[in-house]
Amino acid sequence: MIEVRHDRTVAAPRSAVWAVLSRFDRIAEWATAVDHSSLLTATRTGLGATRRIQVGSMVLIEEVTEWEPETRLAYCLRGLPPLVRSAVNEWEIVTDGQASRVSLTAHVMPGPRPPTRVAARVLARRLGATNAGLLADLVHTVEGTTP
Q: Are 64 and 48 in contact (CB under 8 A)?
């Protein structure tokens, strides 16, 4: 498993961070990397909620696998190149005084053959860079600041 983690402090309580993250189908409203998002399930929140996002020419399907209000949100990503068995993004929110500490970790499981491990590491780094941008966008949205 390859993990790429980014952390930021948000000058807001966990409830404010969760208010943005929990609108699962509305990521395109605050994430500059996401061109479009739409819900694919009748379930808007919680386990099983699934969205389709478009990032440039790439289309990903993301399904919620963990949903702990004001604490954790994780979702699997489908539509990545087949060199990975699985990829999951995991958001964690922890109270830090009057602020919140938010982390976003990409968990990437490489394919079974050795050449895919190197390619999966490159993909994990790219996913991590995208996640760093998502985290920065979340902070700006919650704090009401301009990036």
A: yes
Determine the straight-line distance between the first and last CA of the chain, rounded to whole angstroms: 32
CA distance 17 to 23: 11
**pLDDT tens digits along 33-52:** 999 999 999 999 999 999 99
List the beta strands (DSSP E) in 46-115.
Answer: 50-55, 58-68, 72-78, 84-96, 99-110
Walk me through the domains of the chain, giving residue ranges and CATH numbers. 2-143 (3.30.530.20)
Residue type, position 11, single letter:
A
pTM score of the predicted model: 0.91
For the segment 91-128, what is each residue's pLDDT rounded down to a tens digit?
999 999 999 999 999 999 887 777 778 888 888 888 89
Three-class secondary structure of residue 21 per DSSP: helix
Supply 69's token pair: 């209000």
Place of tokens 């929110």: 93
Angle between helices 114-143 and 14-21 (to 10 degrees): 120
